[in-house]
Amino acid sequence: MDGTELHRAEATRPVIIQGGMGVAVSGWRLAREVARAGQLGVVSGTALDAVVARRLQDGDEGGHIRRALRHFPSRGIASRVLERFFRPDGRGGHPYRPHPAIDLHPSAAAIELALVGNFAEVWLAKEGHEGMIGVNMLEKIQTATPSAILGAMLAGVDYVLMGAGVPLEIPKLLNDFAAGRAGEVTIAVADATRAYGASLDPAEVLRDDLPVLKRPKFLAIVSLPLLAGFLNRSEATRPDGFVVEGPRAGGHSAPPRGKLTVDADGQPVYGVRDEANISAMTTIGLPFWLAGGYATPERVAEAVAAGAEGVQVGTLFAFAEESGLRPDLRQQLLRQLAEGTLTVRNDPLASPTGFPFKIAAVEGTLSDPKVYAARERICNLGFLRTPVERGDGTLTYRCAAEPEHMYVRKGGDAADTVGRICLCNGLLADIGLGQVRRDGHVEDAVLTLGQDLSGPQQLLASHPDGWTAAEAVRWLTGSLPAA
């Protein structure tokens, strides 16, 4: 590709953004195929330190992680991670070794694992093509943000997308890292009497191995034009564009505006005020994509005709062959989709974050009340923990999905623990990386999808055995006018 072609490729905005789903459901294989099809492939940036640690302990099937790490800028960091976690013959059915968590004062080992995990996922997604790759982050997982983004930038990520909060500080963080400077984000700490932040200096971590970093574009995932306008008001907080996500999109969603009301099934009721105001987004003047209910060719064409660059689609790609879902779970979802029995509930209690969270009703998963009740509560991963300042000024971390007595002991309200699901363990189980408990039981899965299943249902009619990511892209763009 010569300079002119490269400039043209960088200037072209995608019509389809493949959603960043779950923990490695939007993995490198899926993102790579979407990018090869000419659209924006996105890897999930959530818990990639756990993902790479567990894949290495399972023997690194195919040698993909080790291949990626041969390109990591620091041989020392890559070697230390491999020495700690790589098991050539796998675990032999034993539990996964714990990995160091990233808190407000992370160890060097925790930072190195996060860098390696995010680097490997993005590098593998970018391998062998000139397409665009993004990484999707959750603003709620604040302490991990600097190391996750730096790891992705080391692999040359093209876009960073972030939702589940107000990503005010990400544009500056990207600018600082691209300039080789230390970057910092503010950390929300419950009961805080002072300000807290998490910082990371690329030069300090990588020293002479620090390469020149490209600044990726940043897309803020918002639910309303009000937040988009707030972010756009200052150059320091202005993203390069927006994804406007409606309440039917999978995973976490913003609660309804105004007083919370629920329907007969206990799901939050959304109204007109929660729908995307396209004319207001157009007035802001930055590129935007629509998400949540835009997974058919007709809806894609409608979005573009209304002024959007295109759409973000997740659920349709969760069903794709290259999805990171365990094959048995993916086949079960396809069977239920074909039978017309697949339902997705927007559960206002499930997520420890307090955000509504979509859960697909699938037998044998944590959507089943009996399976949920049988699971002993434990918080051994902690990605969704909340930092809390104690009365003596020290910090602790609590999660509404941990055992009730532990949550209360840390100053939490017992009522907040009711109905909570350990999403950290459940989402890792979705991709075949579930932890083995003391009694030998493997953690149960919890599946999240969007509530609009019209796209997958229509595509299933012509692809009864399922579809690839490339087939999904061709189908979604089939009603657009020729370029």
The helix fraction, in percent, is 25-40%
Low-confidence stretches: 1-10
Q: How is the largest sheet built, in terms of strand order?
A: 1-10-9-8-7-4-3-2
User: Helices and strands: which structural class?
Assistant: alpha/beta
Question: What can you tell me about this protein's structure?
Answer:
The chain has 483 residues and is an alpha/beta fold. It has a domain at 14-325 and 465-476: TIM Barrel (Alpha-Beta Barrel), CATH 3.20.20. It is built from 19 helices and 14 strands. An 8-stranded parallel β-sheet has the order 1-10-9-8-7-4-3-2. A two-stranded antiparallel ribbon has the order 5-6. Strands 11-12 form a two-stranded antiparallel sheet. Helix 5 (75-85) crosses helix 6 (108-126). The longest helix is centred in the N-terminal third of the chain and has 19 residues, at 108-126. The two termini are 21 Å apart. The model is unreliable at 1-10 (pLDDT under 50).
Which SSEs are present, and which pair or pack?
Elements: H1 3-11, E1 16-18, H2 28-36, E2 41-44, H3 48-57, H4 64-69, H5 75-85, H6 108-126, E3 133-138, H7 145-154, E4 159-163, H8 170-178, E5 183-186, E6 197-200, H9 202-206, E7 217-222, H10 225-232, E8 241-245, H11 278-284, E9 288-291, H12 297-305, E10 310-313, H13 315-318, H14 327-339, E11 344-347, E12 357-360, H15 369-374, E13 386-389, E14 395-398, H16 404-409, H17 423-430, H18 454-462, H19 469-476
Parallel strand pairs: 1-10, 2-3, 3-4, 4-7, 7-8, 8-9, 9-10
Antiparallel strand pairs: 5-6, 11-12, 13-14
Helix pairs in contact: 2-6, 3-6, 5-6, 6-7, 7-8, 10-11
